[in-house]
Amino acid sequence: GQQVMQIPQYQHVQEGEDFTTYCNSSTTLSNIQWYKQRPGGHPVFLIQLVKSGEVKKQKRLTFQFGEAKKNSSLHITATQTTDVGTYFCGSLSLDAGGTSYGKLTFGQGTILTVHP
Amino acid sequence: DADVTQTPRNRITKTGKRIMLECSQTKGHDRMYWYRQDPGLGLRLIYYSFDVKDINKGEISDGYSVSRQAQAKFSLSLESAIPNQTALYFCATSDPGQGSETQYFGPGTRLLVL
Q: Which residues pair with residue A25 across a beta bridge?
């Protein structure tokens, strides 16, 4: 099955600094999803990328899917204290027809802390 | 999401006890999942169910069992709890589509096995 490695495990930044977390796989991924989990909360879906080289933006967040579909990144510009939490990437297994198996394989997550 | 609820939210139990964690959803989704979260290990899939009659093991099913009582209910049981099952447990649901399947997580159950 698909395996996804996520780095770094922890990142501490000063408010206003940028932040990036990376997901890497040794195999080609069908897609990549990103989730955010606030402290004490549950994972919440942010976005899905499916196309090679795809880039999507949500305000200060930029998501990229690599050309080879083996890696992805989430970049936050000018972090704020509200960005604190754990960011997970995950990849969904699909069958040959493109219908999902529903199984999401998650990376280990990156814990982001922001110092005001 | 409030559409996915889990009970109890916190549980302390002793080694060897049988416990059940329950999950209910009002989203009308056929697919339901149980994950456990441990520091540094992310979210790992325990069991998943694509409908009432379809239940599958995930990557870490040993020591766990599940029951899908209805489309809206999916329970996780620890037959004989052990300390290394201390973790945060999440239930999730999803709706299948052509490569787009957001997972909606419940609030989680924090389990401590003494």
A: none
- Look up residue A18 and give its DSSP letter: -
Question: Contact A29/A2 with Cβ under 8 angstroms?
Answer: yes
**Number of Cβ pairs < 8 A linking chain A and chain B:** 67
Chain B residues lying within 8 Å of A9, measured CB to CB = 40
* pLDDT at site A96: 64
Chain A nearest C-alpha distance from B56 (Å): 10
Cα dihedral A60/B95/A4/A67 (nearest 10): -60
* B11-68: pLDDT as tens digits: 999 999 999 999 999 999 999 999 999 988 889 999 999 999 999 999 899 999 999 9
3-class state of residue B45 by DSSP: strand
Chain B residues with beta carbon closer than 8 angstroms to that of A43 = 43, 90, 103, 105
On chain B, the residues whose CB falls within 8 A of the CB of A45 are: 102-104
Position A99 pLDDT exceeds 70: no
CA B7/CA B21 separation, integer angstroms: 6
Structure tokens given for A114: 């922001």
The predicted-structure confidence for A3-22, as pLDDT tens digits, reads as follows: 899 999 999 999 999 999 99
Tokens of A38: 């606030």
